[in-house]
Every structure is written in structure tokens, then in C-alpha cells.
Amino acid sequence: MSISAIGGFVLLCLAWGSTWLPLKHGVAHLPPLLFVGSRFLAGGAVLWLASGRTRVPAPGLLWPGAVLMIAANYGLMAWGAGRVPSGLAATVNFATVPLAVLLFAGRPPSLGQMAALALGVAGLGLLAWTSGRDLGGGAPAGLGAIALGAVCYGIGTLRMKAIATNRSPISLAAWHSLVGGALLLALSASVEPWTAAVWADFTAPMALANWAVLVVLSTVVGFSLYLALLRRWSASAVASYAYVCPVVALTLGMLVDGEQPSPGEMAASLTLIAAAALTLIPRPSSQEMP
Prior knowledge:
Largest sheet: none
Helix content: over 70%
Order of helices and strands: HHHHHHHHHHHHH
């Protein structure tokens, strides 16, 4: 592994791990679907320009990413992120995605991966119980929404892996972001208020700063680094971001936002991080995570 690739991996973990605080702050004061939908439209436009303004792909190439990975996942994530601390939200999301990929891959898991599934279920249950006790009745619902969104993301990832071979990843990501963002905004327009007061809050300096951080760090920088690493490392090596990013998010939540997870929440978070790590143990017949 080269030093430049390791540096890129560190930057990827910092970029994706540090986006949870601005997401939490953004949806705390703005309609969540409007906030994340507009973010994906903006990020998709940047990626579309970077891809050379490619034509829209066939619908069969769009729905796994646009509907499952973006509209469903980030819609549920945004709703849940306003109800739980950012570090716990990140832990549930990043741990559930590899578990969902493992569960729905359609192939027998290894013993290590079976242990990962068991740990993941135990960790989610423990976190729901402790967060409900420590944070109030809305926390389990928020964590459940984030976990459900992550399951949608994992299923979408498997579908994309099956149909998107030999396609430009930047072009697909651009169109997924554009279409997924449009779906989120359409849903927002039907269920959320689009009043003058909402737009005034949206254009406030702090709200725009949180929004811009998500567009730049999560969509443009993070995704670009992810693609670059996939060209140089195995999928399993790159997938290890799933248990590094929660550590970044938990640390930033404590240092910047004063979040103080309880001992039970920390134990559950460590259990989920361990479960995510165990998903990277290959089956005897394979050297990479599905």
C-alpha cells in the first residue's frame, strides 16, 4: 500500500466521519427532506460536470442508486439524525450497511461473518434499549429509521454491483445524485412546508455552511476518494471505512458538540464497530467482501 493511498483512506474516513454533525445541525432547524434533497442535487451537478456531462442512463441502472441508496437511505437517515446524537447515528449507519450487504448477498457467510451478524443484531438491540432509556422515547425510532435506510443502501449496493459493471462510476453517481435528490425534493414538497420562513432559515449563514460541508465533503470529496481507492485497493480493504468513520463521528460529537454517550451506548457502539470489522473476514472461497 502506497503512502498516497493510505493518506487518501485517512482523508476518506475524516470526510465521511465528519459529515454527521452538519447533518444533525441542518435537520434540527430545516425540513430534513428539503435539506438532503437539495444537497444531492448540488453534489450531483458537480459530479455531472466532472463526468463530462454524460447522458442519463437507462432506468434499470438508475433505480438501485437513486431510489434505494439515496432517496430511501438518506431520507430515513435525515429523519432519524434529528433525534439521536451524531456519533450514535453514524455508528448505526456505518455498521448496518456491511451487515445488510452480507445478509442479502445470497451466499453462505463464513463463521466470522455469521458472528458479525449476531454481534450486529445484539449491538443494535442494546443501542436501542440504552438510547431509549437515556435519550427518551424518540431515540429508538430515530435509530431504527437510520438502520432501515442503511439496509436499503446495502441492497442497492448489491444491485448496483450486479448491473453497473463497465459503467462510468462518476457518471452513475452523478445521475443517481440528481435523480435521488429530485425524488427527495418532490417528497419534501408534498409533506414538508416550503414557506418563506423555511427559505429564510435555509439561507442563514450557519444553515448554508452545514449544507455546503455535506455537498463538498460527503458527496464530492468523499465519493471521489472512494472511487480512487477502489482502483488501487481490494473492496474489502476500502470497506474498512465502515468501522473507522464511526470513531471519527463519535469523537467529533464529544469534542465539538459535547455529546456524552452513556457506558451502555459506548458498549453498544463498540459492539457494532466490531461487527462491521468482522464482515470483512472472507469466506474460505473468496478473498473479498461481496
